[in-house]
């Protein structure tokens, strides 16, 4: 579902404003998480599932009634943004030309499909067709692995290390959700046009590393609450990756590209518990090799650190390529 939402946004928002739009989409999702968590605390267990099903039905009806099918046609900033639209036909024509030029620049990397679905080899070819896409896939995998490794170990670690109860853990989750919502709804739309998604991605990954490492080396019960504040920065990661991917594929590839990124993220979310659950149990048991209860969380932090290093290398490679292209253009 998330990949389709991102593809729909990419079809209706121009590249220049896409980072802010993806941030708003993630912020609304975080707001739903916070609202759902708060609502669940006041509902009986048997009623929780009924309310969730009713809300899902309302969302499906809203989708069917109010959202028109994009038809896979993307548009430029001027064509998508009502604030940038002009009333003349000339402006409309230039917007269409801009959109066409953009699609020509991002030529389709998938072979034409005759009623079938792209094969895994086609998806792999798409992700490896450029440094930006392969880097986004690598960053997504390692960051998702570390993120879900943290989620797997955190509750057991906090209970063993500081005696956290379920209410204290729920409060921590609410702080994390509120920080992510604030970041994506307010902070990211302001910073995205100024810094760009590449810088936001690096800042977000740095904040994510700090967030996880502080959990792992927490020396007092209040440190996890302080660490949760860094979600304001780490919330930049996923919208920035989605924006970077959407800018590097053509309009007819938005769905498949976002789906590939979602699939890689899901693979990391599956692999994370398989790796970090036994590791956490080992270091919280009486047979641990050394006394460091947060070791599994520290390992999750190293996964996010790998993602940060990859983002820095990609940024450096893209800057070098840009400078080289500029020099060649000036010499020509």
From TrEMBL:
Matching entries from InterPro entries are given as: MFS (IPR011701), MFS_trans_sf (IPR036259)
Give the source's domain of life in one word. Eukaryota
Entry membrane topology: Multi-pass membrane protein
Q: Which GO terms describe its cellular component?
A: membrane
Query: Which stretches does UniProt call biased (Low complexity)?
Result: 88-100
Where, by residue number, does the polypeptide cross the bilayer? 21-43, 49-67, 124-145, 169-192, 199-217, 223-241, 261-284, 290-310
Q: Where in the cell is it found?
A: Membrane
Q: What is its main location?
A: membrane
- GO molecular function of the protein, one example? transmembrane transporter activity
Disordered: annotated segments: 88-115
Keywords from the named record? Membrane, Transmembrane, Transmembrane helix, Transport
Pfam families per the UniProt record, alphabetical: MFS_1
Give the protein's recorded name.
Answer: Major facilitator superfamily (MFS) profile domain-containing protein
């Amino acid at each position: 579902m998330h990949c389709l939402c991102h593809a729909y946004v990419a079809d209706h928002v121009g590249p220049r404003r896409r980072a802010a739009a993806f941030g708003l989409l993630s912020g609304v999702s975080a707001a739903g998480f916070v609202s759902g968590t708060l609502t669940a605390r006041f509902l009986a267990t048997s009623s929780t599932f009924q309310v969730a099903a009713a809300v899902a039905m309302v969302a499906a009806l809203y989708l069917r009634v109010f959202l028109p099918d994009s038809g896979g046609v993307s548009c430029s900033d001027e064509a998508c943004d009502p604030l940038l639209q002009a009333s003349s036909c000339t402006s409309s024509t230039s917007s269409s030309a801009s959109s066409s030029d953009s699609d020509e620049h991002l030529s389709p990397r998938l072979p034409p499909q005759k009623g079938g679905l792209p094969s895994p080899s086609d998806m792999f070819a798409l992700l490896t067709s450029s440094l930006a896409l392969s880097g986004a896939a690598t960053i997504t995998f390692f960051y998702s692995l570390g993120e879900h490794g943290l989620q797997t170990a955190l509750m057991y670690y906090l209970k063993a290390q500081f005696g956290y109860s379920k209410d204290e853990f729920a409060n921590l989750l609410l702080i994390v959700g509120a920080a992510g919502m604030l970041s994506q709804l307010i902070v990211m739309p302001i910073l995205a046009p100024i810094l760009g998604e590449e810088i936001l991605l690096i800042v977000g990954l740095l904040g994510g590393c700090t967030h996880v490492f502080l959990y792992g080396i927490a020396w007092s019960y209040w440190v996890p609450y302080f660490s949760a504040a860094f979600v304001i920065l780490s919330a930049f990661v996923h919208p920035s990756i989605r924006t970077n991917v959407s800018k590097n594929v053509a309009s007819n590839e938005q769905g498949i590209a976002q789906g590939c990124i979602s699939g890689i993220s899901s693979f990391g979310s599956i692999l994370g518990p398989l790796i970090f659950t036994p590791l956490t149990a080992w270091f919280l048991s009486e047979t641990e090799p050394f006394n460091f209860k947060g070791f599994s969380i520290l390992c999750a932090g190293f996964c996010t650190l790998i993602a940060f290093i990859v983002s820095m290398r990609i940024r450096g490679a893209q800057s070098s390529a840009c400078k080289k292209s500029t020099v060649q253009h000036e010499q020509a």
